[in-house]
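Could you help me review a protein record that somebody else here produced? Do not assume that whoever made the record got everything right. The record follows directly below this note.
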Amino acid sequence: MPALEATARSQHFSALWVDAFCIPLEEPARAQCLRWMGAIFARASRAVVVLSEPCAVALEQIRATQGVEAAALPSLDDDPWVTRAWTYQELVNARSVRFVAEGRSTAWADGDELLDYVGHAVKRYGEEHGLDVHEIRAKYRRLDGLEDLLLDWKTADYMERSAYQAVSSMHRREAGRPDDHFNAMVGAISPAPTAVAPLRAEHPADHFMRVCEANGDYSFIYTAGPRSTASGRGWRPVAVDRFQAVLPWHSFGEGQSAKVHSTHIELNGMWRLRPRPTAQTAIDSTERWLRIGHADHTQGDVATRLLARLRLAGFLGCGEYMELAEGFFYSQSPLPTDRQVVVAVATGVRMVHGAPALLLREGESEIHDLCDVGVFIGKVPDAGDVICVR
């Protein structure tokens, strides 16, 4: 096979794992193997990614010139490898990564080289065409996903990746079978192949959440979609075929720690904010962020331009927002009319411009009802308080 020949030419090895040959075809062995692949790739000396032959131009440029020309970017953007569900855990868990082009022995690049040189090429392209990172993201969706994937690999060690990071990285990935979406994420965050045994007839989404809970990370709550109707469990997403991060943008942080009680969940590190006019200092800070990289082309006030930026980043919320003294909260669903609510911002799941957040209706006790999930735009502190949600 050309792919095997390209791999063999690119490096020496004593044993070789090939997904197409080694993964069982029958269920449930296939699903179990996919959940183990994170551990398999973490123990490999190197993961070799075989891209399609058109990508050879970009890889050969890296070898010859230590750079990538803009004309070679579309070939990387057209390659389907980065959009496959299970390739996510292969790359992010690997200690060393090499990219090769099918059938071309001179076309190869290590993971950090590809990240650096493609990143520089994308930046130059944006500067030449007056595009910021979000607009480039909209133009080169697969290439942007490759950059995010490589960045995740560089910055998050195996078993130190939040559930929210995994959900965000799976945003545009295609699953051959319905359960591949969650099996791939389990392989990326599971501390050991058999740490959490699957329950008979359990939905893959429920298994994924149980793995997250065993890891002490509940950041999967910052996903859009229906919630449980069980008493005290309104915070927990209902099992569906896919989870959608409220903002599928690169994030960092230790995740969302919590303690589950029979009547509610106790969330740690939450920053509590109340509706009020946005302070001028927060508006000025947001204006500076909007202008980063290029002149802000969008017409309208700050909140309108922020929404346009969030749309480019993948936000699918309704578009309504709430003013807070410290910034803006954009909800997934229409905001309640009475506004007797509080916004709880995560401090353990962060983005460069904000963090995911919950919209809560305050109860007479200290246990609040979940109204919605959304994203907060503004400066987030390093720590927060305990908030209880049912």
Summary: Residues 111-129 form the longest helix (19 residues). The chain has a mean pLDDT of 86. The first strand starts at residue 47 and ends at 51.
